[in-house]
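Hi R.,

Here's the chain you asked about this morning:
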Amino acid sequence: MTKVAFLNPNATEQMTHEMVVAARDVSTPDIQIVGYTNRDGPPAIQGPKDAEACLSGLFTIAKQARAAGASVLIIGCFDDTGLHSLRATCGCPVIGLGEAACLVASISRPRFVVVTTTQGSVPEITRNITAMGLDPRCAGVVAADVPVLEILDRADELEAVVRDQSRRFSEAAVVLGCAGMSPLSRRLASVCKAPVIDPNRAAVKLAQTALASDAGWKDARPFSQGRVLGGRNASL
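And here is the predicted structure, written out as tokens:
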């Protein structure tokens, strides 16, 4: 059985559990979904300071996951924190939630809109979309002004924003811009005519595709050493 590991950059175990539950909902029987929590990280990732604070712990759990036999790593944060460094050094496919969801959305519809949590996440998500070359397809990145750890308690507010964006961009797919929105994905989909993209489910489907397309990954070295990138993407 092939192991796919969700790496939660924050310290909130409940979010790790929610990611794993969402992924198992769409994974095939030959895939084992496991979750790792960065206990040294902040409670949530809501901007550059949180992202910087989580990196050391994120790289540690990535190494743990690879040592335990994970064939694919999924970064459980829509900001795709540390994605480029992990992809360059860990010797296996590495998928970011934001990357996966936006790619799937761009296939599903000519345009997409991202609904995220707070304003602090908007600049990084916008930069990532531009870096992927998807900015012409993106109708906008909208903050619901609902903190990550309050998503379930303030579901009505989040639903109102998703409904509003779906009506405003009626032909656009709606991307849920936070891993913690997964438990509400079916509820949010019920208020939209266009597809609603859950990043956790999108990521595990891409993981399965990556595994099927390149069997050579199994022989790759677990980690390479050396400096890769600076800032948020500092080397392991």
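One quick note: The beta strands are 2-8, 31-37, 70-75, 94-96, 112-116, 138-143, 173-176, 196-197.

Cheers,
M.
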